[in-house]
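Consider the following input, taken from an annotated entry for Aminotransferase class I/classII large domain-containing protein (Alectoria fallacina).
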Amino acid sequence: MGSLPAPEAKKPINLLWGKPSPSLIPTDQMAVAAQKVFSNPTIAIAGMQYGDSPHAGYEPLRQRLSAYLCGFYGCPSDPSHLCITGGASQGLTVILQMLSDPIATKAVWMTAPCFFAARKVFEDGGLTGKLRGVNEFDDGSIDLKYLEREMAKLENQPKTNTACKPTAITQKSYTHLIYIVPTFSNPSGKTMPLACREALVSLARAHNALVISDDIYDMLQWPSTGNEFTSPISLSSISPIPRLIDIDHALPNHPSDPYGFRHTLSNGSFSKIVAPGVRTGWVDAAPALVRALAGCGATLAGGCPSQLVATMLAELMDHGWLEKHVRETLVPAYQRRRALMVEAVNRQLEGLGGGVAVINDGGPVGGYFVWVKLPERVKATDVARVAKEQEALVVSPGPLFGVAWDEQEMDLEGFLRLSFSYEDESNLTEGAMRLGNVVKNLLDTSDQMDSDSVNSRHLDSTGFGGKSDL
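Applying the prediction step yields:
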């Protein structure tokens, strides 16, 4: 008798990747933009050179980006406030090079749970052992009382060393760095309320702290409605919560900041609104801080980051194409994807005691991720392992987002981060079903272990099966 055929392998589904679906990447438009650049010798040569001093980036892109940000946020903007970067992560690296010091900077304060990949950037910047977590609450605010108390403790410690980097009026070292993703946070998807943003700015100004605000998901938002599938999108009804830099810049310059670096910056990127491979982003900040970033040694020696791609992005932004792409392609797609995932996950897990943890009823929703609460007795690391081994499903377990070196490490074993940005819509539903299967099986295993434990204790109490019988 012949052997049975091997079961067909399941199609892999990846709910970890925080990147756009290939169907949402504007390859045709990028090709047109590239053709426009290379058909104009003046633009083409500008794109293939180092870039003009003061090396803050391709000026036409800064001008068009400034107008776009002004229209989106409803706040005044100027190209002098913008420095083009090689993306948000490369921008963070330059920020650390120019505005932090391995000795003088006492701590990096990160929202807990945090964007895990940022930890390595801070550690590579000479700040290993200085990362500290600040707990995020259900409403998206953070524990400011704890932050203020702990910053003061560090400032009151006796000074043992001086800064190891030379400073000048074009370079400043902050005592504290505060890293946040305030809108649709990665991983939790929460949004920091205005009152917390205002209080955080005041705290940063009082303690020579720089708030590094990753604002990369801001444009990917839509109103929360009763039915995300059928309700028409009215982006005109969205009034984005003011950024921390807008709050900071509305205040008078702080006496401890004579050169006007300010205490906040907005780290932006085209990765989420065009494509990650364009490797281009921006820092929106006070002109003094922009000049400091533009004076980075690597930029002075090697030229403006992403200079050639910047010319193509400037073409994309001409005549409002990028704004239309975000409004008419990305936002509707992500709105539907998120709704599908929330409904599918809740259908699988709510009856088990789990489900999507963050639902912004009445407020804007958006970003790339949903934060899922698991039933009690189920650990995220077990779910991730079993899902990959048995269901060909990749998910992000909560402990991945802990803050290294944190003395108040949160227990994140009860959570998963799921991305709705990459997989096709059908795979989002299928992925939720597979996740439900994994959780149910783990709960059944836990119940069986509990039952076996009870039976074992019963045998011992009746005189059978205990050590006294050996």
